[in-house]
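The data are passed on as follows:
___
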Amino acid sequence: MAALDGKVALITGAASGIGRATAERLAAEGARVGVVDLTDDAGQAVAKSVGGVFHRADVGEPSEVDAAFAAVERELGGVDIAFLNAGIAIGHPQIETLPDDLYRLIMRVNVDGVVYGARAAVRAMERRGGGAIVATSSLAGLIPFPPDPVYDLTKHAVVGFIRSIAPSLVPKGITANTVNPGMTDTKIMGEDARRTLREANFPIMPPSQIADAVLRIITGGRTGECWVCQPGREPEPYRFHDVPGPRTEGAQGRVPPGVREGTLDSG
């Protein structure tokens, strides 16, 4: 049996790039796929190629996200996997000249789309008794990226959000993780950047490499992790370090009950 036989996956931003490659990879493992994108023709083509269904949705509109999940549940029987992949870059390094409309655009796609998608996914997965959420972040969600600081902001937001919801989803049988690709050959990169990297002999990953990582995350059963993907390396979870905890001398050396020193985590 294939790894995902009987499972239903909903993928946003699935008409091209990482989303398309992941739709193909999950379908090859037996999943039925709901393709969600703003691009009708390309989205329909991907859905047809993987034997899935297509729904047009703007991920920045909560009603459209909810409608897409409801349609996939109705047509395919439920949602077990949600790959929240839709995203854009704006390539605007100068914060002092950042236009309001450009800022709002990237925030609604890259941040709102993940929040609305996760909300809808959890509701759908509770009806299935569990599931797996993966959101596309980036290496820019873990390190500074001066060429596009607002893009960097959104990808850090995805990391913080997914890591923060993961513990509360454990009792529901739902895992939540991010995939954090380095330079990948997608539309978001742009031709100028692609040409510069190739001229410098800098390796660029094919979207299929990220799709393989997403499958590994979905089937691995781990949660609250951010999986780094780099050329020539196996995907691996990023190792976060605890921040220094408060000095406790003033409290007679005691840490409040239920709080571990050096973290903000309870338990």
